[in-house]
Amino acid sequence: MSPAAQRVAIIGGGPAGLMAAESLSGHAVQVDVFDAMPSVGRKFLMAGRGGLNLTHSEPAGPFLARYGARAPQVAPWLEALDAAGLREWAHGLGIQTFVGSSGRVFPEEMKAAPLLRAWLARLRARGVRLHMRHRWLGWPAGSRPRAAALRFDTPEGGQTYAADAVVLALGGGSWARLGSDGAWMAGLRAHGIEVAPLRPANCGFDVAWSDHFRERNAGLPVKSVAMACETAAGERLARQGEFVISETGIEGSLVYALSAPLRDRIEAAGEATAMLDLLPDWPREKVLAAVTHPRGARSMSSHLQSRLGLKGVKAGLLRECATAEDFRDPARLGLRIKALPLILTRPRPVDEAISTAGGVSFDALTPGLMLRSAPGVFCAGEMLDWEAPTGGYLLTACMASGVAAASGVMDFLAAGQPGQELDG
């Protein structure tokens, strides 16, 4: 089979799949992208509605550490496409980027749509074909997973496509209405492929708010606070930022940054404690001195507002989470302001999460991201068993995994194995 005749199918039109298509389009192969939705990149566009966080300017070492236990698996992806490389790629599309005050990297226009339009125009110019409303049906029961026989449900009925290699980039299980519904999990498991259950990542958590607190504070932001928790290994993690009080609990960037250890703690113990520092810029000694200062006839609420500026939703949180004994003892109350326990009962459902953990096990994959039990079938993106916090880390690794999978495809094709697969 001549290289020009080799065909690669990519199932899933999110960032990982499109980046795999781009990498492959530079070689003498025909690339076809299939997606069940009417258009590609729907979750990508939704994520960019408030400003597309493309990547992060953090140095390579701390950047890689954001992937936690999966850092060794993600490291080769970032060697193929790191944060600097992703910015250069965007610049090549005519999309200039800038580093925000938090170190996050954004397109100058802030939106995802201009970047996606330029990206799709380049893919089409390179001969990549897009097939919308093509829902992959998986492999028939009892058959061997293979690239050579792909079945799709389309508006015109069932169709088949024969490929020499396929990249599955089917996403996780969050935001199902945008295409990432995790429906592929059962099919892979049925063929003996090891898949870890999908779990919410970058998610909110439920808290048993009193009706009084919920009615007065739901929807309000809690700004300039710190949150800390312990990992299963006993390591203390702390971040500073802001979050939002929701009807059911808490959500927002500060919560998402610690969502993995908080989720894991709930799974192990039934609940998790997030320790809040309501005044992270105030030394503990200064807070204690202010709280224990004689307040005369003033109420404690007035005293805290006067001496510490503690009011509104922060004061409400203190009332909600501190005990009556804490309020009777000024010194004890001062300590609570710096370490207020917030009990989390469960993470929000998978479909509400920004992303998911779980997916295809790395034990089921070769280093080139090919399924060991299915030669010619590769996996990329969020459907793999890894997770990352928001801040550009998730998107960077998704796109980098697409490059890594494409590299694996080309190695596979160059080894002359496609014919073997087609004859099988």
Describe this structure in words.
This protein has helices at residues 15-25, 42-47, 60-65, 71-80, 83-92, 113-125, 184-190, 211-217, 253-257, 259-269, 284-292, 300-308, 312-321, 324-328, 330-338, 393-414, 418-423, and strands spanning 7-11, 30-34, 55-56, 97-99, 104-107, 129-131, 135-136, 150-154, 157-161, 165-168, 195-201, 205-206, 221-230, 236-245, 249-251, 272-277, 340-344, 346-347, 355-360, 377-379. It is 37% helix and 22% strand. The protein has a 7-stranded antiparallel β-sheet with strand order 17-16-13-14-15-12-18. Strands 6-2-1-10-20 form a 5-stranded parallel β-sheet, with helices on one face. It is an alpha+beta fold and 424 residues long. A hairpin with a 4-residue loop joins β4 and β5 (104-107).
Summarize the SSE layout with pairings.
Layout: E1 7-11, H1 15-25, E2 30-34, H2 42-47, E3 55-56, H3 60-65, H4 71-80, H5 83-92, E4 97-99, E5 104-107, H6 113-125, E6 129-131, E7 135-136, E8 150-154, E9 157-161, E10 165-168, H7 184-190, E11 195-201, E12 205-206, H8 211-217, E13 221-230, E14 236-245, E15 249-251, H9 253-257, H10 259-269, E16 272-277, H11 284-292, H12 300-308, H13 312-321, H14 324-328, H15 330-338, E17 340-344, E18 346-347, E19 355-360, E20 377-379, H16 393-414, H17 418-423
Helix pairs in contact: 1-16, 4-16, 11-15
